[in-house]
Amino acid sequence: MQQTLTSERPHLTVAAVVEQNDKFLLVRELCNGELKLNQPAGHVENGESLIQAVERECLEETGWQVTASSFLGISQFSAPNGITYLRCSFVCKAIKQLEHYTLDSDIHEALWLSREQIFSQQHSHRSAMVANDIKRYEQGLQFQIEQLYCLLAQFDA
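and the corresponding structure tokens:
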């Protein structure tokens, strides 16, 4: 079977799994005219490291300053619009919430939800990656950030 090649490359994104007091930090965002639940997530900007991207995205979407503490893994998602997303997910620790922070325009609200609340609303998740990242987190499938950068350094050599 011949595969059709397109000039569109996968989009590199990051996501933050932030847990505090048995609740996870999520956003309710406007996506194609509908409100969807997602982890704080977004695109990596040119010249930005993965860590810088996830910490920036979390701040922009939730008003929370976070620090990435471990690497959760990579997910691949083929969206209905034909775009493939490669999502690098990180476990992040909440540092502090900045009061009166103006969130990204497509973010309706940032909220802390229990596991039960998240999984009872799976129909409104932006993608299956939301639940998958929570499950990986709960299973302890995490890597030290240094391991990620050691792997990436091999490509720079």
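(Above: one complete record from the training split.) The chain is about 25% helix and 40% strand.
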